[in-house]
Amino acid sequence: MPHHKSSYTARAASFKNPTASRLLKLMDEKQTNLSIAADVTTKAELLKLADVLGPYICVFKTHIDIVTDFDQDLIKQLEALAQKHNFLIFEDRKFADIGNTVKHQYSQGVYHIASWSDITNAHPLPGEGIIKGLKEVGLPLSRGLLLLAEMSSAGSLAKGAYSEEAVRMARRNRDFVIGFIGQRRLSVPLDAGQEQEDDFLYLTPGVSMAQPGDSLGQQYRSPEQVILESECDVIIVGRGIYGAADPVAKATEYREAGWAAYQKRLGVSQ
Ligand code: S5P
After folding, report:
1. 152 labeled binding residue
2. What's the distance, CA 176 to chain centroid?
């Protein structure tokens, strides 16, 4: 059976990486494949979103470097909320440098990302050294990495052979690379000696039920297009939720739409 036709829980066992299996199981437990992109710029707003949306999401995605009043207490409180509501934290750092540099960026500096973020992501652009560098820091902490195989923005150069190479890099580092940021489940010819495609998680941004895009190149699709047609696993929604007058009501709508698409994909009748 193709991976995307199995339940999240059934797929959990085939991942060696503990963060991947934890995520898959908690999605079925909480009945949600919704991730919020919490792109707000103050500590208070970020923590409020984590607390009010926590029950409806599987992953809380941050851009920690846009928070003006960042401090260590923010991390402490965010971790407590992740425990309280049972969600994973994903710092959307988009590393893009050589292995030796990203290793320091991931573990040191102001943010110490590796110490609190279950998942982070990297561009495959520099080659496999970026994964090796991040892995030295992240694997001992049981963290998971996503590679940006494709982007949602207009004119993205991450396509074709570039995206396919991202999948090959991921196959060679399956202990640490748990999946991709991408627009669709990728189909890449198997490597020599490979009998079947490894399972990977696909987390997909560029999701809105209201807008076709923004004025800066973002392009949106619906939860159904992402989960059912493109066979991805998690919808990442930012402004469609936190920008609404009632973020909780919107999160409920996106959660229901994402979950219905997943049920349909599994062939479960409603
Ligand atoms: O290809 C991408 C990859 C990412 S991680 N396109 C994206 O938009 N993102 C992120 O998803 C982006 O950095 C932002 O945090 C979120 C989308 O936000 P929205 O407000 O457009 O839903």
Report:
1. yes
2. 14
Domains in the chain, number: 1
d(CA 263, CA 270): 8
108 is in an annotated binding site: no
> Model pTM greater than 0.85?
yes
Residue 270 pLDDT: 56
pLDDT tens for residues 11-21? 999 999 999 99
The response to whether residue 206 sits with its C-beta less than 6 Å from ligand 1 reads yes
The domain that holds 95 is classified in CATH as 3.20.20.70
Q: Which domain holds residue 193?
A: 3-266
From 34, 35, 36, 39, give the residue whose CB has the most ligand 1 atoms within 8 Å, as the site to mutate: 39
User: What separation in Å is there between the alpha carbon of 133 and the centre of ligand 1?
Assistant: 24
Mean pLDDT of 106-112: 98
